Structures are given as C-alpha cells and as structure tokens.
Amino acid sequence: DIVMTQSPDSLAVSLGERATINCKSSQSVLYSSNNKNYLAWYQQKPGQPPKLLIYWASTRESGVPDRFSGSGSGTDFTLTISSLQAEDVAVYYCQQYYSTPSMCSFGQGTKLEIK
Amino acid sequence: QVQLVQSGAEVKKPGASVKVSCKASGYTFTGYYMHWVRQAPGQGLEWMGWINPNSGGTNYAQKFQGWVTMTRDTSISTAYMELSRLRSDDTAVYYCARAFAHGSGRGPYDYWGQGTLVTVSS
User: Fold this and answer.
1) Nearest chain A residue (CA) to B57
2) Once rounded to an integer, what is the mean pLDDT over residues A45-60?
3) Which of A16, A69, B24, B47 keeps 20 to 30 A from B65, CA to CA?
4) In terms of C-beta density within 10 A (0-12 exposed, 13-18 middle, 19 or more buried), how is residue B84 classed?
C-alpha cells in the first residue's frame, strides 16, 4: 500500500503571506506511460466534505483561485497558497490515486490557521 | 448541476448493521464510479472502496473486506454502502464521492455527498 505523509501537521501563516504544505508518498505515483502524477489536493472546512483543489499534481480544478498551486513529481509534492486569505483556513489533504485497481490513500491532513 | 445527496444520521448499537444511501443527480449515474470514504471524529480521511454503477462491480479496501457491501439501484440513481458488525470505532461521517473520470474508477473525486454521521453506541 502507498503511504502518504504530509508535513507539517499544522501551520500558522499571516494573512497575505505564503503557505506551503508538503506531501510525500512511499512510492512513486508518476505513471510512466502518460507522464502524469496521480496526486490530488483537497481542502476541508469544518462541517463540510472535502473540496477538490488540484489534480494531476498541478492542475487546478475549475473555479479554484489561482493563489492555489501544486507542484512536484514522483514522490514529493507541494501545495502552495501564494497569499493567504481568511477563507483559506481549513485542513488540507493530499491523495494518491495511482494504486490499482482504482484504490487510493490520503495523507493525514495539515491544519492551516491564521497567525 | 451534479449533486450527491446522502441519507440522514444514524445511531446504531454495537453488532448492528447500517446502510447509507447516496442519490445522484445531474449526470449519467452509470458513467462514473462511486467511492466511499469515512472520517472518524477529528480524524483524517479513510478510503473504503468503490462501486462501478454500470456493472455493479466492486473493490473494497482490504481492511473492510468481509464486512462492507456496496450496491446500487440504477433505476433511482442511488448507491448504497452497508457496514455490518458495527463497533464503537466505526463512529464516523461516511461520504460518497464521484470519481471524476468517466468510466474509470480512478480518482480524484470531483463531487462529494454531504456526509452521513453514523454513531455506534450502546
């Protein structure tokens, strides 16, 4: 099974500053035949289901503000919020969907707060 | 617009079973796999498995094999997740979530149900 590990577990950032969350997979999630990383990021606010932000490691879902960006390849990935807004306070999860047949696993989550 | 609407909260005793429904609308139900994910109070997300609404085929996480059953009723565009032999640590919010690629079980999940709280308590 692929284990996803996020760092840090929690993060406090000032409004307008950059927030960076890391995610590491225990094995590569890069599929060589299409050169795509099977890695997604979600945002979850209290009392709500997760919301898809990023897929294929760096593709923003429709409607997601461009201050959110994803990067990385293979086993190491990063979610960056370029200028933190109050509404970005949430828990963020990475997810690998590389495993077959169509299995997945999530990181443990990173809680993002305002400093 | 795409919507996944789940059934209401449940309270069950240890050893009982629970069946959660997820009614889909706004898209062709049989075209997209449905996954189930649970979240214990204050904890992270745990993948449980998926169902292919077209064929009825399923795949369960190893942890849940033997005590989860996923089914569907295509006539009413509804997926179901039944968990048996409930224990107190099965207390969680259970989500259905649609895999975004048409005809593929692979994630990510672009639409989620609102969640169903299942409480297991004697």
Assistant:
1) A101
2) 97
3) B24
4) middle
C-beta atoms of A49 and B105 within 8 A:
no
pLDDT of residue A59: 97
Give mean pLDDT, residues B70-88.
Answer: 98
Q: Which of chain A's residues have a Cβ under 8 Å away from the Cβ of B35? A: 104
Average pLDDT of chain A, as a whole number: 96
Select the residue from B62, B106, B116 to test the A interface by mutation, using most A Cβ atoms within 10 A: B106
The contacts of residue B40 (CB under 8 Å, 6+ apart) are B46, B89, B91, B92
SS3 assignment, position A100: coil
Helix/strand/coil (H/E/C) assignment for every residue in B64-88? HCCCEEEEEEHHHCEEEEEECCCCH
Report percent pLDDT > 90 for chain A: 94
> Would you state the pLDDT for residue A1?
86
For residues A96 and A56, what is the distance between their CA atoms, to the nearest angstrom? 10
How far CA B3 is from CA of B23, B30, B99, B114, in Å, comes to 8, 14, 13, 9
Interface membership of B64 toward A (CB under 8 Å): no
Q: Is residue B80 within 8 Å of B17, Cβ to Cβ?
A: no
